[in-house]
Design a protein that fits this description.
heterodimer, A: mainly alpha, Rna Polymerase Sigma Factor, Chain: A, Arc Repressor Mutant, subunit A, 9 helices, globular, B: alpha+beta, Immunoglobulin-like, five-stranded antiparallel β-sheet, four-stranded antiparallel β-sheet, about 30% strand, elongated
């Protein structure tokens, strides 16, 4: 597999089409973060598109070619913040996405679909900074120093956010258990 | 439901770590926007090359359904023209319409300019069979259009402004400058 660094070099030299390789390579990996952060698939796709286009336009600012992935992730985190603020203003109703609908249609997977919805419901109730920190730490498996570089937030503040997110999720899901 | 509090968080994390498949047509949307960003001729050629390049595509049943239903459409203006508004010129502008429709047996361009006649403007398949195109002369104006795949599947162009027509079928809009 051609390395990110090699592809970035080709794009910088004018091979625009090579950028499609990076889009295909990172689409699903980054899409997962955007879907969970924004709770809406179409918002996530829009944020992801914006992130790729902005990355392309500012590729010269990616100082180390081999660090394209983390650099792109940083752009996506910012796009999700902007999209999240916009979505909050729209007061969008919570709607299951197509994946959940498909799972729900199969009786043997109804428990799984219910759990999907429960997790999504709980994640939506976290304040965006807590949701962001939780996802970066526990889903994207990042170290706090890396999260700090990505978000511009101090390590101790991030640790506090992750801890609060864990507490709130635990409380929310215990509440569900009691209903 | 849960034995211990930690089990709850572990299950949440396991759930959130499951792979998420995004719509593969997102790639085309990104590359179309990249191509529209500047250096039109060079980037247009790059997108064209990208569209032609053989590649393996792994598609889940759900994604396949989406892909089949929303075969990607791209309107590409000939050199020197903006993707949505053609440059002013005397007489008709020549506009090339391109759609990526892998597996299609036939694709036609229908719109205000041919009275939505499915037989009036057949598109030609490229060697790969996935890329269909046709070039039409259009006088300045605003036109609604869509692609007709296999004679029955109505397909709007996701890369262009969209409108609902009188029958609630989506179509696209192209404006040719005058």
């Amino acid at each position: 597999m051609t390395s990110d660094a090699e592809i970035v070099r080709r794009v910088r030299e004018g091979d625009t089409a090579a950028f499609a390789v990076l889009v295909a390579r990172y689409r699903d990996r980054l899409g997962r973060y955007a879907v969970h952060m924004l709770g809406d698939r179409s918002d996530a796709e829009e944020a992801l598109q914006d992130a790729f286009v902005r990355a392309y336009r500012s590729l010269a600012r990616c100082r180390e070619d081999g660090q394209f992935g983390p650099w792109l992730f940083g752009i996506l985190v910012n796009r999700c913040r902007t999209a999240g603020r916009r979505a909050a203003r729209r007061h969008r109703m919570f709607v299951r996405d197509e994946v959940s609908l498909e799972r729900a249609s199969a009786p043997e997977t109804s428990d799984r679909a219910e759990w999907d919805d429960t997790v999504r419901w709980a994640m939506e109730r976290l304040a965006p900074p807590l949701r962001e920190a939780f996802l970066l730490k526990h889903v994207e498996d990042m170290e706090y120093e890396e999260m700090s570089r990505l978000t511009g937030t101090g390590v101790s503040a991030l640790k506090m956010r992750v801890m609060r997110a864990r507490e709130q999720l635990r409380a929310l899901l215990t509440e569900v258990e009691r209903v | 439901m849960f034995d211990r509090d930690e089990d709850v968080l572990d299950r949440v994390i396991d759930q959130l770590r499951q792979p998420v498949e995004m719509d593969p047509t997102l790639d085309t949307a990104v590359m179309t926007r990249v191509a529209a960003g500047g250096e039109r001729l060079g980037r247009l050629a790059a997108v064209w090359d990208w569209a032609w390049r053989p590649r393996e595509i792994s598609v889940s049943p759900l994604a396949g359904l989406g892909l089949a239903a929303a075969v990607v459409g791209i309107v590409v203006w000939l050199a020197g023209r903006n993707p949505q508004v053609a440059s002013p010129a005397a007489g008709p502008n020549t506009v090339q319409f391109v759609v990526v429709a892998p597996g299609a047996a036939s694709v036609s361009l229908v719109g205000d300019f041919n009275d939505w006649d499915g037989g009036a403007t057949p598109m030609q398949a490229a060697k790969s069979g996935a890329l269909w195109s046709v070039t039409v002369p259009l006088t300045p104006g605003r036109y609604r259009y869509a692609f007709l795949v296999n004679g029955s599947r109505w397909l709007a162009d996701p890369a262009a402004p969209r409108v609902q027509d009188d029958y609630d079928a989506p179509s696209s809009v192209v404006t040719v400058g005058g």
